[in-house]
TrEMBL record, chain A:
<dbReference type="GO" id="GO:0055085">
    <property type="term" value="P:transmembrane transport"/>
</dbReference>
<feature type="transmembrane region" description="Helical">
    <location>
        <begin position="257"/>
        <end position="282"/>
    </location>
</feature>
<protein>
    <submittedName>
        <fullName>ABC transporter permease</fullName>
    </submittedName>
</protein>
<keyword id="KW-0472">Membrane</keyword>
<keyword id="KW-1133">Transmembrane helix</keyword>
<feature type="transmembrane region" description="Helical">
    <location>
        <begin position="201"/>
        <end position="223"/>
    </location>
</feature>
<feature type="transmembrane region" description="Helical">
    <location>
        <begin position="27"/>
        <end position="46"/>
    </location>
</feature>
<comment type="similarity">
    <text>Belongs to the binding-protein-dependent transport system permease family.</text>
</comment>
<keyword id="KW-0812">Transmembrane</keyword>
From TrEMBL, chain B:
<feature type="transmembrane region" description="Helical">
    <location>
        <begin position="564"/>
        <end position="585"/>
    </location>
</feature>
<dbReference type="GO" id="GO:1904680">
    <property type="term" value="F:peptide transmembrane transporter activity"/>
</dbReference>
<keyword id="KW-1133">Transmembrane helix</keyword>
<protein>
    <submittedName>
        <fullName>Peptide ABC transporter substrate-binding protein</fullName>
    </submittedName>
</protein>
<dbReference type="GO" id="GO:0043190">
    <property type="term" value="C:ATP-binding cassette (ABC) transporter complex"/>
</dbReference>
<feature type="signal peptide">
    <location>
        <begin position="1"/>
        <end position="27"/>
    </location>
</feature>
<dbReference type="GO" id="GO:0042597">
    <property type="term" value="C:periplasmic space"/>
</dbReference>
<dbReference type="GO" id="GO:0030313">
    <property type="term" value="C:cell envelope"/>
</dbReference>
<keyword id="KW-0472">Membrane</keyword>
Length: 294, 596
């Protein structure tokens, strides 16, 4: 019995993968993402971390790209290539953790609202609507100003402001799933809330949540860069946003130091593009509405 | 000029590409000096304005009772041309000469002076900006149109440095509510070398030369201040010839203008210093300890070791880009009368000696190499800095490394200005970045470190910088306050700074240079104050603007046109738009195809 189930699951997964692989964009995105993640993980092994210490900067300020510094140096004389490389880590970590937080809140609220209905739903949805209409950037700025400075604050600020869309989406999908006869049957056979949600609703909703997660990461990374650029991040941590912030306040524009501004910007674009391409491909595979009739 | 103004108020720099606000339309062809400013004017009402930009506009519009000379900042004629004081220094008599006129033609009299000061003594709102000057006044009376007599409760050394714009009684006596009055009804009646004729908040301020000014008319017709959101944008505007004068530049902007044709740079001695405050045991006025500063910092040996382990030269070289002078006392070298040039004994950067001093006093290193106080507490210190200041962020990293060399662990925390101010007033810090602008008269900056400036039990009622409380310093402070002989006072003030330097409640890191630049193809020169190493803008006076000499080119309108910045911004926007459109179209196409 179990063996048959596993067999079926493996077949389904393989079919999903084959379908995903047929989207060239998705595949390219996945490869790019893998490469970037690998580079980020290997940064401590492949590079010398002391180059990040402003007090031991190897170059002169604002050196243009050369054989020694491929992407030039920043205002303190550190290699921009090294900074961008290490910045990947913080940007990815913050983007992913903020997304996990946001998706977690969104899924909880969405499923609960759809499943319990009535007052609970009305209350939760008004709560969601409240957050939906608040300008999330302003709210995030307010949060990161009030709370102590640090990566945790940024994650919290992004996570706490970006969940309402997920909640709406999950609620809609849960409603659709719960309208199906097999849910009614499970209830008739005596399945409680935990059973229905855990065994039937969540598995049906998860693919959508997964797709949503991939797409939210892109937004979270941009949000992190925005907040750091505005000087609200943790300045002792190097991220792409904080590099852009530094370039701006230390006069990279006046020095025409394009090499200080372009790499972190390109980094953001590439990662966001990769996530979006993956997410879109995944969406067409997993979202039944986008799937063609067979 | 600004008394006790924390530097935190540096405008937040937001936005990468900022277009300058629309410049006001040019009139026929008046000769105009166009100045870029990045700081906002808080109010045009001289009783309320406290920002540098606001007080500067106030100085252009209104004369003060006395002025500071251009060459060496000694008191010279302002509204009054002669003055004398009684032997007990409690009664001061000022003579207001005949012939000075308000810009509407009415004569400037002693009654205007008495009106202004009395208004500030009577109405607390009018004392908002400059109330400290009149706080000790007993009475101000105009005995006739030419004579004003001021009686003070105690001798006051700032009697010839009263930074209060004198306003016309015939205009201001009609003002009901000083706090609400904007003073924007142009042309604003004033007595200074320029008259305010047009003002648009956060866009520009236009002043017209007062041709009847008693010192003589300015050599050009109009002075226009234009707002720029960032110093980068202002520096770009100067290099393109859209403005003629820029200040408050950072090393990067300053260096980028080097060697450009038609631009002259002015690296001036600044009036502000940067410091790291070392919490020497915060306490209230009554000596009640507050806050949670590290107890080891109460030990002067530790404070001295910290100061000795910080390499000031490296910070100036790397963080200030070389544009600063080494720090010693509280008063920068721009005021040579009071600057502590050579401390004796002088501290030099010597981590080995600092290590030895700590070893000898019983601060042993533990297994990780961190020092532990004799009471058994590890020397782990918080260093808080302003998020609004790039300087703090960078210097913090250096300090962290320097102190690691002597076994002290530093945790650099960059927080918002509000959070920093809360921590420093409550004493909940170990080390903190701070910095102050100073005046020709050292009184206010010295007073910050007296016992009396410590807060009361609620944390209010004092503006202490360091919670420093030292009997010797306080005695000298009282002594200099009553000393009217410059040489003797200068001697006492230097001894105070030496005491401060020895006790190290803070390490003065350096005095920033003021970095300015102007179009020398349009303006031949600007009077500097002081003459040697002085500034053009943000003077103790307006000599720089008033004495500017235009060249023959100055009347011509600049070669404007679209600028690199606009092109850059436009190109950036275009890339975003095209990229976005491409993504959208691609997405649409894809879905359509996939949906069949």
């Amino acid at each position: 019995m179990t063996a048959i189930v596993w067999e079926r699951r493996r077949a389904a997964a393989w079919a999903t993968w084959r379908e995903f692989a047929s989207h060239r964009g998705g595949l390219v995105g996945l490869l790019g993402l893998g490469a970037i993640a690998l580079l980020a993980l290997l940064a401590p092994l492949l590079t010398d971390q002391t180059g990040l210490d402003v007090t031991r900067a190897p170059g002169r300020p604002f050196e243009p790209p050369s054989g020694e510094f491929w992407l030039g140096t920043d205002n303190t004389g550190r290699s921009v290539l090294l900074l961008t490389w290490w910045g990947t880590r913080v940007s990815l970590v913050v983007g992913l953790s903020a997304t996990v937080l946001s998706v977690l809140i969104g899924t909880l609220v969405g499923v609960a609202a759809a499943h319990f209905g009535g007052w609970t739903s009305a209350l939760l949805m008004r709560f969601t609507d409240f957050f939906l209409v608040l300008p999330s950037l302003v709210l995030a700025i307010a949060l990161s100003t009030v709370l102590p400075r640090g990566l945790g604050t940024i994650v919290l600020a992004i996570g706490a402001t970006s969940w309402p869309a997920t909640a709406r989406l999950v609620r809609a999908q849960t409603l659709a799933v719960e309208a199906r006869p097999f849910i009614e049957r499970a209830k008739a056979l005596g399945g409680g809330h935990a059973h229905v949600i855990g065994k039937h609703v969540l598995p049906a909703v998860l693919p959508l949540v997964f797709v949503n997660t991939t797409l939210t990461v892109a937004g979270a990374i941009i949000a992190e860069s925005t907040l750091s650029f505005l000087g609200l991040g943790d300045p002792t941590q190097i991220s792409w946003g904080s590099m852009l912030h530094a370039a701006n306040v230390h006069g990279a524009v006046s020095q025409r130091a394009w090499w200080f501004l372009v790499p972190p910007g390109l980094g953001v674009v590439l990662v966001v593009l990769a996530f979006t391409m993956c997410g879109r491909a995944l969406e067409t595979v997993l979202n039944p509405r986008l799937k063609g009739e067979r | 000029m600004g008394v006790r103004r924390r530097i935190g108020a540096v405008g937040a720099v937001v936005g990468l590409v900022v277009l300058p606000c629309a410049a006001p339309a040019q009139a026929q062809s008046p000769i105009t000096l166009r100045v870029a400013i990045t700081q906002q004017v808080d109010s045009l009402n001289p009783f309320l304005s406290i920002t540098q930009a606001g007080t500067e506009v106030g100085r252009l519009m209104y004369d003060y009772l006395t002025a500071y000379s251009q060459a060496d900042q000694r008191p010279v004629e302002g509204v009054a041309d002669e003055w004398e004081s009684s032997d007990d220094k409690l009664t001061w008599t000022f003579h207001v000469p005949d012939g000075k006129k308000w810009s509407d033609g009415k004569p400037v009299t002693a009654k205007d002076v008495a009106f202004t000061y009395n208004l500030m003594m009577r109405d607390p709102v009018a004392a908002t900006a400059n109330g400290s000057f009149t706080a000790e006044f007993d009475s101000v009376t105009a005995t006739d149109d030419r004579t004003v007599v001021i009686r003070t409760k105690a001798p006051q050394a700032t009697m010839l440095a009263l930074d209060i714009p004198i306003v016309p009684e015939h205009v201001w006596s009609a003002v009901q509510n000083i706090g609400e009055y904007q003073n924007e009804a142009v042309p604003v009646v004033g007595s200074g070398p320029f008259v305010l004729t047009e003002y648009r908040a956060n866009e520009f301020i236009r002043l017209t030369a007062n041709k009847d000014y008693w010192r003589g008319a300015p050599k050009y017709d109009e002075l226009v201040f234009t707002y720029y959101k960032t110093v980068d944008a202002a520096a770009q505007a100067l290099s393109r010839g859209e403005v003629d004068l820029v200040n408050r530049m950072g090393p990067a902007q300053f260096d980028s203008l080097k060697g450009k044709e038609g631009i002259t740079l002015n690296k001036a001695n600044g009036r502000r210093f940067n410091e790291i405050v070392i919490n020497p045991g915060a306490a209230t006025k009554t000596g009640e300890p507050i806050g949670d500063g590290h107890p080891a910092l109460k030990d002067v040996v530790v404070r001295r070791a910290i100061a000795q382990a910080i390499d000031l030269d490296e910070i100036i070289e790397k963080v200030n880009g070389g544009y600063a002078q080494r720090g010693t006392g509280l008063i920068p070298p721009v005021f040579p009368d009071f600057h502590l040039d050579k401390p004796n004994p002088e501290r030099v950067y010597d981590p080995a000696a600092a290590n030895k001093a700590l070893d000898d006093t019983g601060y042993r290193r533990n297994a990780e190499g961190t020092r532990v106080s004799p009471e058994g507490r590890e020397l782990e210190l918080r260093l808080i800095g302003h998020a609004s200041r790039a300087y703090d962020e960078q210097t913090g990293e250096f300090v962290k490394r320097f102190l690691a060399d002597i076994g002290i662990v530093v945790d650099v925390q960059i927080v918002s200005d509000n959070q920093l101010n809360e921590s420093t007033t409550a004493g909940t810090f170990d080390l903190a970045f701070s910095g102050w602008g100073t005046n020709p008269d050292p009184e206010s900056i010295l007073s910050l470190h007296t016992c009396a400036q410590r807060p009361n039990a609620d944390g209010k009622g004092g503006t202490t910088d360091t919670f420093f409380c030292d009997a010797e310093y306080d005695a000298l402070y009282a002594q200099q306050k009553a000393e009217f002989d410059l040489a003797k006072r200068s001697e006492i003030v230097k001894r105070m700074q030496q005491r401060f330097y020895d006790q190290v409640p803070s390490v003065v890191l350096g005095y920033d240079n003021a970095l300015e630049a102007y179009r020398s193809d349009k303006f031949a020169g600007f009077p500097l104050q002081p003459e040697k190493g002085g500034v053009i803008m943000a003077q103790n006076g307006v000599w720089g603007y008033y004495g500017a000499t235009p060249t023959d080119n100055a009347g011509r309108s600049s070669s404007g046109g679209s600028t690199a910045l606009v092109i850059g911004g436009g190109a950036g926007a275009l890339v975003v738009l095209v990229g976005g459109a491409w993504l959208v179209s691609r997405r649409r196409g894809a879905s359509a195809g996939e949906r069949e």
